[in-house]
Specification:
With 257 residues, this protein is mainly alpha-helical. The protein is built from twelve helices and five strands. The radius of gyration is 20 Å and the shape is elongated.
Length: 257
């Protein structure tokens, strides 16, 4: 029985239980270990981060999960059966707030996702990670969880999903991220402005130009900022909109780029 296995595992290797809880928030068919390794740095300091950032502890946790028949090893990741996944989600709620575990999963996935789709490798990364995003989003929606971790995850996922999902679903995602950021951060912040632009770009793509224009503040002017993001291999230019309310009479217009 999964419940008995989880109880025994908790006594033998607490790291493995922390890992299993997060795995239960992803799509169970194929979870690349790269998600966990690449996304671990975004986690606050704690048992889960220590497990994921320490190769020895991470490998030992996976080995324990396999030995208890809770997960199976794939070519470059892990799979978990739906029955076990559901049982883990249930036991997580009994052991503590499920929201905390789901936030950790969304934080990890959000960090692992690329913020753009400017190369084939990044497109493939988004394509492979999309089932895990959809699972996290579904769980958050089902549990009525609205957090900044969810908004960040949606914002990154949208860069790939604009032209690959239905109008209604992408609209729901973009509106959810914007609403969360407005509630938590207010109107005039980088994150909220980015979500406004993403929704405006979505409207523009469907030729709803008037709707796109309404997302610009009631201000009279747009200020453009140019910034550079550094990666280990290259400097990556990124355009960022930053919109403020400035006195004037000219009505804002949608900028095409």
């Amino acid at each position: 029985m999964p419940t008995l296995s989880i109880e025994l595992l908790e006594e033998k290797n607490p790291d493995a239980v922390e890992l299993l809880d997060v795995l239960a928030c992803f799509s169970g068919k194929d979870i690349p270990t790269a998600i966990l390794r690449d996304g671990s740095t975004a986690l606050p300091n704690g048992l889960l981060r220590q497990t994921l950032t320490n190769p020895t502890r991470f490998d030992a946790a996976i080995a324990s999960l396999i030995s208890f028949s809770l997960v199976q090893k794939t070519s470059d990741g892990i799979s978990i059966k739906s029955t076990i996944q559901e049982e883990v989600q249930r036991t997580v709620s009994e052991r503590g707030p499920f929201e905390k575990v789901l936030k950790s999963a969304m934080c990890v996935l959000g960090e692992a996702l690329s913020s753009d789709v400017f190369s084939v490798s990044k497109i493939k990364l988004h394509q492979r990670y999309q089932p895990h995003f959809l699972t996290c989003y579904s769980l958050a929606k089902k549990s009525a969880i609205r957090s900044l971790e969810l908004a960040t995850l949606i914002s990154k996922a949208l860069t790939y999903m604009y032209e690959r999902c239905t109008y209604d679903f992408v609209y729901e995602l973009a509106q959810t991220a914007l609403s969360i950021r407005r509630d938590y951060l207010g109107e005039k912040t980088y994150e909220t402005t980015k979500s406004m632009i993403q929704l405006a770009e979505f409207y523009q793509g469907w030729l709803y130009y008037k709707k796109a224009e309404t997302l610009l503040p009631q201000g009279k002017r747009s200020v453009w900022c140019f910034s550079f993001g550094f990666t280990s291999t290259s400097w990556k230019p990124t355009f960022i909109w930053w919109i403020y309310t400035i006195i004037g009479k000219t009505q804002p217009k949608l900028v095409e780029y």
